[in-house]
Specification:
RNA-binding; five-stranded mixed beta sheet; elongated; 19 helices; Rossmann fold; 2 domains; eight-stranded mixed beta sheet; BirA Bifunctional Protein, domain 2; alpha+beta
Length: 484
RNA sequence: GCUGGCGUAGCUCAGUUGGUUAGAGCACCAGAUUGUGGAUCUGGGGGUCGUAGGUUCAAAUCCUACCGCCAGUACCA
C-alpha cells in the first residue's frame, strides 16, 4: 500500500436507504400515530433482537434460504437477521410461560429480506405489528381488522381498502374443484395473481402454462378443465357487500362439508363489522385473496391504497394457530397484522400525503455579536425551559442574511434578532418568518391600498419588544393560524 | 434468477456518421446590499463521461466483461 489517500466512496447497499431529517420527522410522526391507535386498543409494547438463531426463524426441514440474511457468528453459530416480527413473537410466547394470555402486543422494528428491491420494497424495512396470542375467538380477528381500519384513517388516508377472507375458504375451493390438498400452495400462488394478470392467464397457469410478455415460460399446474371451470365459477361470484358475498359463497359451497367452518367464522366477522358500522367499501370480504405465507390457518387480511395499487399490500396479516407450536409442542392460537411502514410511507409520499418538515426547531436565535455568546446561550436556554424548541445559530458565518436564510430553509417559523441596538435598549426583535416570507413577494409590487395592508402586516411580521416580553411574543407568533 | 432499456456536474438532461479544451437549465457559492429571507443582475466553483479492458492516429460515442439503476417477469418461508 502506498501512502496516497484513498477516498472511500460514500454509497448505500442495494435495497437500503437513508432517511434524512425531513423524511424522518414525517416518519416518526407516522409511527407515533400508529402507536397511539394500537395503544388505544390496549396492545403492549415488545422488542426482540434483530438476530435470532436461524432455526428459530426457519424451523427444521425448511429449505427456503433465499430471502434470509444469514451468517455465521464469531461463536460459529448459524444465525440470521429476522425477516418478520411474527416468528420472534411466537418464540417469546413459548419462552416465557408466565406471560399472561391472551398476550396482545405491538412491536415496531426493522426486518431484513434479501430479495430484489422494487418500488416500496426494500431489503431493510420497518414493520409495525399488532398481534393477539392465545385467543381462538374470532373477536380477536375482528379487532385486528378494526385496528387496521382505524390506523389507516388515523394516518389521514382516505382511499384505502382492507380486504379479508379465510384460508379455509380456499381449502374448501380445492375440495369443491376436486384438487388434492398437496397442490394448495401452487394453486393459491396462482390465484393471488388474479388482479395482476387476469383470468385468462390464470387459467393458463392452472392448466398447461403460458409464456409471458418477456418470453419466459411459466409452467402449468396441469389441472383438469373441469377443475378450472369450478375455480372460475368461484371467481365469478359478484363482489359487493360482505353479507352478500358470504351468502353467495355458502350457496356455492353448500355441498362442501369443509366449508362449514369457513362460513361460520366469516359469518361472525361480517356480523361484527356490520354492527360496528365499519363500511363495506373500506373493509370488504374478498374471497380471492390468498397471501403468500404458509403459516396462516384462518382469516387473512390485507390493505392496499386504492390510489397507489402498484405498491401492493401495505398492511397485511392473518391467523396463524400453528406457529407457536413450533417452539412449544402444543398449539396456541394467534392472529395479527403488520404494517410495512416504509412501503406505506413511500406510497403516501407518492400520493402527496406526507408533509415534510425539515426542522424540529420552532425558534432560531440568531447571533449578531459573537462576543456576547453567553447572552445568546442564556436566551436559548430560557426558551427551552419554557418548552419551546429552540436552535441557537452555531454556524461560522455571522451575517444576518445568512442566518435568516438558514432558518428559512429549515422552515423554522420564528427568528430572534439580538444585536447591539437591542442589547443597548434591553430589547429583542422577534420575527415571524412565515408571515415575513409571504410579504417578500408583495414588497416590490405593493402600492395604494395593498401597500397599506403590507405595512400593517410587516409591523406584525417583525416586532421589537422589551427583553422581558420575549417569551410572550414568541408564543403569540407561534399561536398564529397558519395555512395548511 | 431471466429478458429488455439506461448510466455524462448535487439534480434533470444535450452532446451530429468516432474528430480540438464535454455543454445547458436548475441547485450551490460570492458580490451588488459590512443588521433582514424572495426576485433580479454580475461573477464563481464544480466532470476519473458508472468501472475495467479492447479496437483506433483519435472513444462520452464502437466492442467485451463487471457494477448500478429502471421496466417487465419469476420467486416471496
Amino acid at each position: 500500500m502506498t501512502t496516497e489517500q484513498r477516498i472511500v466512496e460514500p454509497r448505500l447497499l442495494r435495497g437500503f436507504r437513508d432517511y434524512l431529517p425531513a423524511q424522518m420527522n414525517a416518519r416518526q410522526k407516522m409511527i407515533a400515530t400508529i402507536r397511539q391507535v394500537y395503544e388505544r386498543y390496549g396492545f403492549l409494547p415488545l422488542d426482540t433482537p434483530a438476530q435470532e438463531y436461524r432455526v428459530t426463524l426457519m424451523g427444521y426441514g425448511e429449505e427456503n434460504t433465499k430471502q434470509i440474511f444469514g451468517f455465521i457468528n464469531p461463536e460459529e453459530e448459524d444465525v440470521a437477521l429476522r425477516f418478520d416480527l411474527t416468528v420472534p413473537l411466537a418464540r417469546v410466547v413459548a419462552q416465557y410461560p408466565d406471560l399472561p394470555l391472551p398476550f396482545r402486543r405491538y412491536q415496531v422494528a426493522p426486518v431484513w429480506r434479501a430479495d430484489k428491491p422494487d418500488p416500496g420494497r426494500f431489503r431493510e424495512f420497518l414493520q409495525f405489528d399488532l398481534d393477539s396470542v392465545g385467543v381462538s375467538s374470532n373477536a380477536a380477528d375482528v379487532e385486528i381488522l378494526c385496528g387496521m381500519y382505524d390506523t389507516l384513517r388515523a394516518l389521514g388516508i382516505e382511499h384505502f381498502k382492507v380486504r379479508f377472507s379465510d384460508r379455509k375458504v380456499l381449502n374448501s375451493l380445492l375440495d369443491f374443484a376436486g384438487i388434492p390438498r398437496e397442490m394448495a400452495h401452487g394453486v393459491f400462488r396462482v390465484l393471488d395473481k388474479l388482479e395482476k394478470v387476469g383470468l385468462e392467464n390464470i387459467s393458463a397457469e392452472l392448466t398447461t402454462g403460458r409464456t409471458d410478455v418477456s418470453g419466459d415460460k411459466i409452467p402449468g399446474l396441469g389441472l383438469s378443465a373441469a377443475a378450472v371451470d369450478r375455480i372460475k365459477e368461484f371467481l365469478a361470484m359478484p363482489r359487493g357487500k360482505r353479507k352478500d358475498v358470504l351468502a353467495d359463497m355458502s350457496k356455492l359451497f353448500a355441498r362442501v362439508p369443509s366449508a362449514v367452518e369457513a362460513v361460520t367464522e366469516l359469518q361472525f366477522m361480517c356480523d361484527a363489522l356490520d354492527s360496528l358500522a365499519i363500511p363495506d367499501e373500506q373493509v370488504a370480504l374478498d374471497l380471492s385473496i390468498a397471501r403468500g405465507l404458509d403459516y396462516y390457518t384462518g382469516p387473512v387480511f390485507e390493505a392496499i391504497l386504492t390510489d397507489a395499487p402498484e405498491f401492493g399490500s401495505v398492511f397485511g396479516g392473518g391467523r396463524y394457530d400453528g406457529l407457536v407450536e413450533r417452539f412449544l409442542g402444543r398449539k396456541i392460537p394467534a392472529v395479527g397484522a403488520s404494517i410495512g411502514v416504509d412501503r406505506l410511507f413511500a406510497a403516501m409520499q407518492k400520493l402527496g400525503l406526507v408533509h415534510l418538515v425539515p426542522s424540529t426547531a420552532q425558534v432560531l436565535v440568531t447571533v449578531m455579536e459573537p462576543a456576547r455568546m453567553h447572552d445568546y446561550l442564556k436566551l436559548a436556554r430560557m426558551l427551552r425551559a419554557e418548552g419551546i424548541n429552540t436552535e441557537l445559530y452555531l454556524g461560522e458565518e455571522s451575517g444576518l442574511g445568512k442566518q435568516l436564510q438558514y432558518a428559512n430553509r429549515l422552515q423554522i417559523p420564528v427568528a430572534i434578532i439580538l444585536g447591539s441596538d437591542e442589547f443597548a435598549a434591553n430589547e429583542v426583535t422577534v420575527k415571524d418568518l412565515l408571515l415575513g416570507a409571504s410579504l417578500q413577494d408583495r414588497k416590490k409590487n405593493a402600492k395604494g391600498k395593498e401597500r397599506d395592508e403590507y405595512l400593517v402586516l410587516s409591523r406584525k411580521a417583525q416586532v421589537k419588544v422589551a427583553a422581558s416580553e420575549c417569551l410572550a411574543c414568541v408564543r403569540e407568533i407561534l399561536s398564529r393560524p397558519r395555512p395548511a
